[in-house]
Design a protein that fits this description.
218 residues, alpha+beta, seven-stranded antiparallel β-sheet, 4 helices
Length: 218
C-alpha cells in the first residue's frame, strides 16, 4: 500500500516492481545524504494507522496503443488489455470546495502509467472482510481482477469493486513530485458509501486489522 516510508503488508501494495526506468526527477541531489535511516523512518511511520483502498482505472479504449506503451500486461478473456488497479493506503480527503482527494503512488508502480493514461480513477474503500482482496491487488505481475466482481463507476467507468465500504469516482486534476513517489490529486465526480457498511479495513505496523471504537458510541 502506498504510504511513503510505512511498513506494508505482504509484498506491499504500492511497491510493484516493473520494468519502467527510474525517473530522472529527484527531491534531493545524488551527493545529499538522507537525514534519517530509511529502516527507522519506515518503522516510525508504520505506527500511523490508516484505512486501505484499491485505486482502479478502466481498460484502455485502444488496446494496440496500450500494448505498444506497456507491453504484455493484465488481459481480459480474448487477449484485450484489462483494467488497472493497486492497493493503496495513502489516500486522503484534500478539499471540500472544490471536492478533491489525493493518493500517493511509487514511481516504479506498473499500474500507475495505465491509470495516468486513463486520466480517471475510482478509489474503493475496503471493508474489514476484504483483506484477501487487498493482498490480491498488492501483487504485481498477475491478473488482479481475476474472480473479482466489479461494475463500472457511474462517471469514469473505472472498476467499482463489489462489497466495498465506500467509493469515490474521480478525474485526475494534477500530479506532483514527492521524492520517490508521485502525489496524485483527483477531482471528485461521484461518490457513495454502502448503507450497511461495517467496520473498515485498517493497516498498522505492517498488519491488516479492523477498527474498534473506544468511546462506546456506534
Amino acid at each position: 500500500m502506498d504510504r511513503p516510508g510505512a511498513e506494508r503488508p505482504g509484498t506491499g501494495p504500492d511497491t510493484e516492481s516493473g520494468t519502467l526506468p527510474k525517473a530522472d526527477l529527484r527531491a534531493v541531489r545524488e551527493d545529499e545524504r538522507a537525514p534519517v535511516d530509511p529502516a527507522h523512518f519506515r518503522r516510525v511511520l508504520g505506527g500511523f494507522a490508516s484505512g486501505v483502498t484499491v485505486v482502479t482505472a478502466p481498460a484502455p479504449e485502444d488496446p494496440a496503443e496500450h500494448t505498444a506503451v506497456h507491453g504484455a500486461s493484465t488481459t481480459e478473456p480474448g487477449g484485450a488489455p484489462g483494467p488497472a488497479g493497486f492497493a493503496c493506503q495513502s489516500f486522503a480527503s484534500l478539499s471540500l470546495e472544490p471536492p478533491l482527494v489525493s493518493f500517493m503512488v511509487g514511481r516504479t508502480s506498473t499500474s500507475w502509467p495505465r491509470i495516468a493514461r486513463a486520466g480517471v480513477f475510482c478509489v474503493n474503500v475496503l471493508a474489514a472482510d476484504q483483506g484477501e482482496l487487498c493482498r490480491a491487488f498488492a501483487v504485481s505481475g498477475t491478473d488482479k481482477f481475476a474472480g473479482v466482481s466489479h461494475r463500472p463507476a457511474p462517471v469514469t467507468g473505472s472498476p467499482l469493486l463489489a462489497g466495498v465500504a465506500a467509493w469515490i469516482d474521480c478525474e485526475i486534476q494534477a500530479v506532483h513530485t514527492g521524492g520517490d513517489h508521485l502525489i496524485v490529486v483527483g477531482r471528485v465526480r461521484a461518490l457513495d458509501a454502502a448503507e450497511d457498511a461495517g467496520d473498515p479495513l485498517v493497516f498498522h505496523r505492517g498488519r491488516l486489522g479492523t477498527f474498534a471504537p473506544v468511546d462506546g458510541r456506534d
